[in-house]
Write a structure and sequence with these properties.
With 695 residues, the protein is of the alpha+beta class. The protein is 28% helix and 28% strand. The C terminus is likely disordered.
Length: 695
């Protein structure tokens, strides 16, 4: 689809459409910070997610974005739109209520199944927008169910992002056919670690246990620590039907109320899961570590292990906080139909158990000591310590949201985190530097250096709060300066705001065969080795590591780079779907709070509105600038604020405000707030002067 333009063209570039409900769009340009605004009448029928060629006709200035018009549609989006099917005679219409879709979609060639789906929620893929037609034309690709039902809405979110919510029958059948028994021949090929003290620590509701840790004291006073990872690649072979499905999915997807696994549950929750008191095939990283936290020896290879205890993070935390004198609900070899029981720590071994509660508690405490040393060293070396509060939506057994609470991360979480980081770093270092292979093809998890222009913007902004960012000569200096800043703002009202802006200076982490290190962690070499049940890159790492340990030749770099790009893209989609499910549940949570007033802080500033997080739940909604009747506000992008044209009233990122919940839209996942105009209240919160309009 093409047309000519008579407007002056500054340049033509390819980008992706982000469409508004009002019909205008923003064209997202790859490798550019700024996007291009396109009025509705110049969109050429392009829809959200389409790849287009945009002609830039107006350059960016102090108050406006670049502006342009679409001259051709390169490719229609492969993501469907979600809406309600309405059948009228032999014609069908999908009524779309998405914030990124202002048009309904006409569908033809209706089957009886489609006719029977009248009034149900469906996924429709736009195929074309014929000339002289007033609506795009598409085809129904999935019937999702009754609108408003929890399963329907979660499936709709997955469909919207092109993510599957069920496995093909043939993939499930292939997984069920995999032998459960471990042959004696396979045991002989592996290092037998079944007798060493091994535990898992995971979230209380976890079902896929893909990692375990072990601890042994050596005669020389050092520790031998093992990080044991489910050997998924023993069961899933390159190119088989399960592998192809895992590649396509790329990652497990975590919605508010469910997990959509990368692998069928026969593998993820059963065969590969390191459940307690079950012998499992693993790929292990073994380390000899001094009491001061120095790694003096490492070994990688295929093993067979036996976890003796399973702890939740809360249980492990209790062990740490009580110095091993804990009383908790014992899980041990608990299965889905087992009952938990409360036990007090004892040196006595229960029947059938090799290690007592005292011995297990000792292991947790010693691992905690080592993890604390690793953590301290990591930050001293330049790792950046972002610790923003993360909120969790609590739901009942029907999926209805009942509360929003803060996730608490404590030492038990850090314990597991540090040993997983250790394994990931050492595996990457081993392949990159420890093999005779010259520049072997490998999958790295990379995180590039920050954007120094954004760092300067942060430096300018924090001056408003009386902070300074220490002078920086290079990226390492930036890391230390940021850590100093983050430490100084802890517990301060402006902490959340400054942390958000500091995060925006960071590049996005991704997978690549070209190593640039991991800036945020402060590692020269880093990969993902520890979660092959839920991430396909980890499966690639297992295969490559095993291949090189067996003296295999260098692998095809182009092949693995394409898989890296695909995995990074799927990771991003999964993250967007997770956020969308949270937004849906938060909108549902706020439905019965319309009309209620809250205190909050400005979390985002745009040319169309103020985003406000309310207390204590941190639920974010938008105050449209057009709804603030007291003044006309002008957006100041550089200083993250809007300024009233008449009153000169300024609203800045981080300002405390009062709002009222004005409306919610569940279909569009939108929450709108109304600003309560109260200069005196704002003055008290900021400690400044209330601005008055001159008469």
């Amino acid at each position: 689809m093409r047309r000519s333009t008579r407007r002056k063209i500054l340049e033509q570039v390819e980008g992706t459409v982000s469409l508004s409900r009002e019909g205008y769009g923003f064209i997202i340009l790859p490798d550019r910070e700024d996007d291009v605004y396109v009025p509705a009448k110049r969109m050429l029928g392009a829809l959200n997610g389409d790849k287009v060629i945009v002609a830039i006709t107006k350059a960016k200035d102090a108050h406006h974005k670049m502006e342009g018009e679409i001259v051709s549609i390169v490719e229609r989006s492969k993501k469907p739109f979600i809406g309600i099917l309405q059948v009228i005679g032999d014609q069908g219409w999908v009524i779309i209520e998405n914030k990124n879709m202002p048009y309904d979609v006409r569908v033809g060639n209706l089957t009886q199944e489609h006719i029977n789906a009248n009034g149900l929620k469906v996924a429709v893929l736009v195929k074309e927008w014929p000339a002289r037609e007033d609506a795009p034309v598409g085809e129904i690709v999935d019937i999702l169910g009754t609108p408003g039902e929890n399963d329907t809405e979660m499936h709709a979110i997955l469909a919207e992002f092109g993510l599957p919510y069920r496995f093909p029958v043939e993939v499930e059948e292939a997984a069920q056919k995999i032998p459960v028994e471990i042959s004696s021949a396979e045991v002989k090929r592996r290092k037998d670690l079944r007798d060493i003290l091994t535990i898992t620590i995971d979230p209380a509701d976890a079902k896929d246990f893909d990692d375990a840790v072990s601890l042994t004291t050596l005669d020389n006073g050092n520790y031998e620590v093992g990080v044991h990872i489910a050997d998924v690649t023993h069961y899933v072979r390159p190119g088989d039907i399960i592998d192809k499905e895992a590649i396509e999915r790329g990652t497990s997807v975590y919605l508010v109320d469910r997990t959509i696994p990368m692998l069928p549950e026969a593998l993820s929750n059963n065969l590969c899961s390191l459940r307690p008191n079950e012998e499992k095939l693993t790929f292990s990283a073994m380390f000899e570590i001094t009491p001061t936290g120095k790694v003096v020896k490492r070994w990688f290879g295929r093993t067979i292990t036996l976890s003796c205890r399973r702890f939740s993070y809360e249980q492990a935390q209790e062990i740490i906080e009580t110095n091993g004198e804990y009383t908790l609900k014992y899980i041990g070899e608990m299965s889905s139909n087992s009952k938990t029981k409360s036990v007090k720590v004892t040196a006595r071994k229960r029947k059938g158990e090799k290690y007592s509660d005292k011995e297990v508690a000792w292991a947790v405490l010693e691992l905690h000591k080592l993890a604390s040393i690793f953590r301290e060293k990591r930050f001293a070396a330049g790792a950046i310590g972002f610790e923003r509060p993360e909120m969790k939506v609590l739901i009942d057994n029907t999926g209805k949201p009942i509360d929003v609470v803060q996730k608490i991360t404590k030492e038990a979480n850090w314990l597991i985190e540090e040993f997983m980081l250790l394994a990931n770093r050492e595996v990457a270092t081993c392949v990159a530097k420890g093999l005779k292979q010259k520049e072997p093809t490998f999958v790295y998890r990379i995180h590039d250096e920050p954007d120094f222009d954004k760092v300067q913007n942060l430096r300018d902004f924090i001056k408003h709060f009386g902070y300074k960012l220490a002078p920086t000569k290079d990226a390492k200096d930036v890391a230390f300066a940021l850590n100093g800043l983050l430490e100084s703002i802890k517990g301060k009202p402006e902490c959340n705001t400054i942390e958000i802006l500091a995060l925006r200076t960071m590049a996005r982490a991704k997978y690549s065969t070209d190593n640039v290190g991991h800036y945020g962690l402060g590692f020269d070499y880093y990969t993902h080795f520890t979660s092959p049940i839920r991430r396909y890159p980890d499966m690639m790492v297992h295969r490559l590591l095993a291949h090189y340990l067996d003296k295999g030749k260098n692998e095809n770099k182009l092949k693995f780079e394409e898989l890296c790009k695909h995995s990074s893209a799927r990771e991003q989609l999964a993250s967007e779907a997770e956020r969308s499910s949270i937004k849906y549940k938060l909108t549902e949570f706020m439905e019965n709070k319309v009309g209620q007033e809250f205190e909050g802080s400005i979390s985002g500033v745009t040319e169309w509105g103020l985003y406000v997080e309310i207390e204590p739940t941190k639920v974010e909604g938008m105050v449209p600038l057009k709804d603030i009747k007291e003044d006309y506000f002008i957006f100041d992008e550089k200083n993250y604020c809007v300024i009233g044209k008449s009153t000169r009233k300024k609203f800045t990122l981080g300002d405390k405000v009062k709002i009222k919940v004005s409306r919610t839209n569940l279909e569009q996942k939108l929450i709108d707030y109304s600003l309560i105009w109260d200069p005196e209240w704002n003055k008290q919160k900021r400690g400044g002067k209330a601005t008055r309009k001159k008469k």
